[in-house]
């Protein structure tokens, strides 16, 4: 999954087509039992959470016990460096765990702010339509006019010096138009339904309609997409760091680890593939969970 | 464009007759709603739709008006325009002495409490994620009713529409059948004690057996609360029992209006006649009494010149193409917009022969 | 339909304005983060005093207010002048002209591969929905979806034992985009193109599958089946076309995104395309190059989006009629 | 066109359905959508199939056309001119569908492929079944359009469905069904989605064509009025079973089953005095998954007793051998019409009382116990409908979530519908059928 997929996985392409989830694989009422994959995904995310919480118990990820060039150590040769050490002799396990913190930061903060800002603007835009909508649309479209990675690159060139926080800020800006369009599309679909017309006809104020009528039916969809966007955010940070313009070196980041070791692929493939595998498993787990949530909510809706 | 403007230029004369009758009753207090020369136009890609092209109707307190016509005749648009859900292009909607089209936003909001609406599709009319008690309470909450009062009133109203409040309150709409949902929608509308209830095809999507349940319930409500009603339907048979008066709409204009007996027993407009004939009777012996109406309702973007019905009318003559027929009285309270009404002075046979 | 088209075009203008304005404002944003930062960083030498830097900024016109600079920029950009690179002192437009064809070819090749694989798989999965082929395809596509391009690039390079980083001497693709050049280029681009395609295949496949499933629920499919037509006939003649509109739209958009999204593979495989030049420019703090390249890509993307919309109107008779 | 249609002209009925069952495997259990239905249709005869939504009538006719959902298990026997259709290989069955049996669907707005020109939709079954050349098929298509009363058939043939009004589209679907000169035409609620005036045109057209060609026809409707004057026989279905089956005249004159009686009383009609109001049937149909024994209508029936609740009535002739009904307490056979009317009047009052009582119960006491049942019944109704709608995506695959399509619609609206403001859109819906094309005078 590339960062450039953001739009698709949000279902926010021009024609507003949603990328299907596993949703399609389930018939109404005949819900799939939570399968092995689902439990696996939950378990893996549990491990990530554990890493985030207990990262401090592992060796210091900044320590360079053997400060020379031949510092590499293969996996499984010692404890607690059982994932080996990198070119500076730093414990890979520690760096993976500390990198998990980075990943969780860049996954949650932008998504939360995207939901908040984008969702609110979406509701406003869907309720008022007209000029309000047109103006917000122009800003959203302008942001979406940049291929996402390009926008991030552009921002990372001006948000200086690069750090976890500048990247988080960049990603946050990136998520807003996505959530905006999703919320808007969802709310507009509802505002044509008669219960919204009824509320208007009863003299309900805009705030009441937006938050009591439109929002409850949008939240579930938004949240299930949010899980998938988190995966996209993690990949985005990884990609930036892989390009060497993301989280700068002493700070641990999965993508950065791959970037630093990619030239040693022949000799120390483990140092490249371990962070790759961790990234893959995390993204995969989030996708599995997101797809399932999405299909669940979709099914609920279609039963109405 | 000439086709569009000619009925409109002709309209003021039509409303003149309208105001003449309105003039008599405006003095008396019992007129609840009077719609005067209402025009509702929409811009759509490719032109302008005259969905409602100059309609005047009047509703007395405690009475029920049936509004009937084929789909696309503008009856639903008229209902929504009365509620100010769309902004009428011109004309006025006077409700209890106040012109709704001239009210401020806040004034309108207060006024809306007194007019409630019931829609065709009960399932889409109820928010799927809210509990029944919250749905029914909505109008009370909006109008600022004290919280302590809301619960009992909601329960009371649910009981009145034939649902057990203990059972339904905590549930959500998808757990109920269409007929039950429509009862909930009626409860929501009636809980605020409105003066006017607008029902937009409330039974069209229900099974016959359930239709009668809902019709009975509405009738009961009318009896117990004295609410006035506008009942929109495409089927003349449905409104017959519930309406005191009926207005038949065709292509954005009213072609016939009168009390129910007059409309059903002696329809004056050929369109009303055709609508009556088209209702299939559950009786193998009954044959249709007239020829089937040809064609379908024309585009409201390009209505025919003169009488809008002339393209499908078996009695149409050259005069119908040139002159817009005005609503005129053929019997006390029975008005029709036709050059050759089926009752009254003109003899339709001649016209038929001429055509 | 023409009204719709008019609105699209009208909508384009403010969007393009914001996009270009935002890129022009890059030097100003630079100062927001760190007031000592300067857009002329590549030109600064150790012995420069703050006054010298100010002078340099004045020379490049960075001391003027934003709107004035924007005016100048637009005037120049219209004539194809995107300024000169701080790092190489070459006109920015020359670099873009040289690199655009490479990126375009890479993106096109990736799109063709992705569609070629995804369309049959999507139809197959929809036809066999719920059965084993569908489940297997679903599993594979979920897995693929979780592999970022930089991971798949590394993996493929490792698996095929291709030397760590390929830095071939590229044929000059910029002279013209003839077929001969396209095929020459493929010799170097097939692996990167596959990497890019891998990321798109699962999305295309899932999209087509679900659209097909949606279409298969339609009444007109029942009608077609009630005519006693064969299953493949119904699938391809009745279901595929109405199901493919969103896929067509998305592939158009994907092309636009790929042009801006080839950064990673260009960087990793050392392909002299636009993406690589942006990364280099960022590392060299060469603002004019970043600015010019980003604008070209973004404008291209916006215009392509509009074209896709128009295309959509042309292929769907329902939209065409409006 | 050299199929030997006369072979069946003798004693063999056109369609003979024996103990047909359509059972759906739902997660809650087996849903008996159609549970043992038998009937016959003679050549050139019209059968009216009447019932509420969820009664299984649509499922029944769809199983005849091979378009029941794949979770459906069909058993029993369906013979077309003596040839068995149930259980034969799909390839053989396809030669029948669309060829010897054809169907007109309910909603002309959705039953035509929006992106395929009308002529191709018309010609494809001729090319498939009759092996006609493209040119011949096209000529015939234009003839068919003319036959069903479409003006300018040449021009219309080249258009897309959305360029036609609702009534015109339904005419096109009729033309499509007639393409291969079928022996049996099934009209599944073919006029429900249309305006009354247009409904009458379409019904007249169907009747005319049926008489002209001597086809057999099944007219499926929920409206007794629609089938009253246009059928030879009527079959009333309730909860997956046939409850009454009789020659049309006889059914209306001497209805036996309490459900038929109630259904007839519920129809709002113009041919009776105004004070004779339609009477509702209290409650709702049973849940077809959990329903066990007894008469399915017992819970809503005013004449029900313990026998009705425990013993399932079977179809029996009572007086007239061609008039079958399945009721333990049939409506008394009124000898003369006058007597029947008097009795009817008395009965009316009685039933009204009973209904009121039942309603009162409904509102007060029983609702606690009854409501869960009804809501489940609603569920099962929804299931049936859903299943009816489900196309055969093999292995019961997912109906596209409603929300998806709506979201995309909305998003499309967000883009495309910038064109018209909100209100205009809402209105456009009202005016859509007529917007497409002016109707010739």
SSE blueprint and pairings:
The complex is a heterotetramer of chains A (304), B (355), C (322) and D (441).
Chain B: H1 2-27, E1 31-44, E2 47-60, E3 64-68, H2 75-82, E4 90-95, E5 98-99, H3 105-112, E6 115-118, H4 132-142, H5 147-160, H6 165-168, H7 178-190, E7 196-200, H8 208-225, E8 228-233, H9 236-240, E9 245-250, E10 253-259, H10 260-265, H11 270-278, H12 318-322, E11 328-331, E12 334-336, H13 348-354
Parallel strand pairs in B: 3-8, 3-9, 6-7, 7-8
Antiparallel strand pairs in B: 1-2, 1-4, 4-5, 9-10, 10-12, 11-12
Helix pairs in contact in B: 4-5, 4-7, 5-7, 7-8
Chain C: H1 2-24, H2 26-33, H3 50-59, H4 66-78, H5 92-127, H6 132-145, H7 149-159, H8 179-216, H9 219-226, H10 231-261, H11 263-269, H12 274-283, H13 287-315, H14 317-320
Helix pairs in contact in C: 1-13, 5-6, 5-8, 5-10, 6-8, 7-8, 8-10, 9-10, 10-13, 11-12, 12-13
Chain D: E1 15-26, E2 29-41, E3 46-50, H1 57-64, E4 72-80, E5 83-84, H2 90-94, E6 101-104, H3 118-129, H4 134-147, H5 153-157, H6 166-178, E7 184-188, H7 196-213, E8 216-221, H8 224-228, E9 233-238, E10 241-247, H9 248-253, H10 258-266, H11 306-310, E11 316-318, E12 320-325, H12 337-363, H13 367-389, H14 402-416, H15 422-435
Brief descriptors of the model:
heterotetramer; A: mainly alpha; MetI-like fold; 66% helix; disordered C terminus; D: 441 residues; alpha/beta; Rossmann fold; 4-stranded antiparallel β-sheet; 15 helices; 41% helix; 18% strand; globular; disordered N terminus
